[in-house]
Amino acid sequence: MSMNNRGSGIWLYAERLPHVSEQHLVTLGEGRVPLVRSWRIGEKLGLPNLYFKLESLNPTGSYKDRISALALSLAREQGKTACIGTTSGNAGASVAAYAARAGLPYHVYVQENIIQSKLEQILVHHAHVYKVEGMGFNSQVGQQVFENVRTKAAANNWEAVITAFAYAPQAMEAVKTISFEIQEELGTPDAVFVPVGGGGLLAGIHSGFSDMLVSGQASRLPKIAACQSSGCANLVRGWEQGLNKPVPGDSTSLISGIQVPNPPDADLVFSALRESGGFGTALQDEATWHWQELLAVEEGIFCEPAGAIGLAGAVQALQEGRISGNDTVVVIISGAGYKDVHRTKVMTEHAHVPIISANEM
Ligand SMILES: *Cc1c(COP(=O)(O)O)cnc(C)c1O
């Protein structure tokens, strides 16, 4: 193995990704995260073949690292002098780390109510951060920010890193490696439950399985299930109403990472659901929090709320008969628990931690 780790993590699939030459490759060890079988929750639900893909174990704690590694590698390959983007937190934390690694400045626009722990994770890498009024709940502002990032990037020869196929189609190819890994370890599952904000994660996972169907590495597609907060269920409502476009509306969801009132990859989400025989499902934030806690208590998996919405979606789909108890189901645990310290505080505030002397033990 070379110093650059070509041949490990997402780079095991380098020949299926956009070309990056050896000297431009930027990596921190992203990808190749564990796929673990449920030990308790699946049994209790009557869904024994339930698996969790632990994207929370990537270097900065979310699957965004797969994209950032490829984005910064491509930026160096193409001689870009900085990167610029927008984020609800995780993409920013990830790009900030990889930009620091690559030695490039990073300008990033965030929502005003960004979770402090995510903001700090961006700032430790000395990224240039700007808070934008209204971003994250007003759909017009979101659209305008995306367009401004694109314009500024083009004008300055900067790399635009918005983690959506609509804005960074080459870097987003890295998301497919999630599916390549699942296929290698498990074969094609019956269903994959994916949290959805902008839709890029879901579109990339579907695209990875589609590629393998075309190349003959897989003989069928898994059903892809789009899991959104009912406070920001623009795609799920559009799907249920048969519109094939999002139902617009502001976001009232309290779940960081999936508060995207104007999902840039909406079209790709709808075609993924159609092609795979999948569906959309909207979850109350309370349900997501509940399953976040159970993942921690019953499985030892500490994820942020967005990382647990897929499990909430799988439970609801089983109750509604959209999947069967015999199905092999993969839930994408997209982000790590330490990212949202608000939630950690709520989850632990009733814990009693007595102060004792050593001889009272
Ligand atoms: C970015 C993110 C999502 C949503 O991904 P999209 O591609 O925007 O749909 C979900 N969970 C976590 C933890 C994320 O960081």
TrEMBL record:
Pfam families xrefs: PALP
Keyword list, A-Z: Lyase, Pyridoxal phosphate
One BP term from GO: L-threonine catabolic process
Domain Tryptophan synthase beta chain-like PALP: 26-335
Cofactor: pyridoxal 5'-phosphate
InterPro entries the UniProt entry points to: Ser/Thr_Dehydratase, TrpB-like_PALP, TrpB-like_PALP_sf
GO MF, one example: L-serine ammonia-lyase activity
Lineage top rank: taxon: Bacteria
The name this protein goes by in its record: Threonine synthase
